[in-house]
Specification:
CATH class: Alpha Beta
Structural class: alpha+beta
Number of helices: 2
CATH topology: Ubiquitin-like (UB roll)
CATH superfamily: Beta-grasp domain
Largest sheet: 5 strands, mixed
Strand order of the largest sheet: 2-1-7-3-5
Order of helices and strands: EEHEEHEEE
Shape: globular
Number of strands: 7
Length: about 90
């Protein structure tokens, strides 16, 4: 299981590209650093702008938008603040 101290990989389902998210880093920052443009606004998990569909893997939800039921379904993730509980997280990007 990945946590704040563990790097993990985000695979982009649409392009097949893989992006490494470093320990302590965010999915959003890692994507932006790799030149991948994604929508975002607040950066703190309170607006929902960066909500992204999860294709595979188990998110570590850290947002304030999704309900407990939605978090349990693991269908979407707020990429600005959430991380991964698995070594690889596949997103619909």
């Amino acid at each position: 299981m990945a946590d704040d101290n563990t790097a993990f990989t985000v695979k982009l389902a649409q392009s097949g590209q893989s992006i490494e998210v470093p320990a302590g880093g965010t999915i959003l920052f890692s994507l932006l650093e790799a030149g991948i443009e994604v929508p975002f606004s607040c950066g703190h998990g309170i607006c929902g702008t960066c909500e992204t569909e999860v294709v595979e893997g188990r998110p570590d939800h850290r947002d304030f938008i999704l309900t407990d039921e939605e978090k349990a379904e693991n269908k979407t993730i707020m990429i600005c603040c959430s991380r991964s509980r698995t070594d690889e997280l596949v997103l619909d990007i």
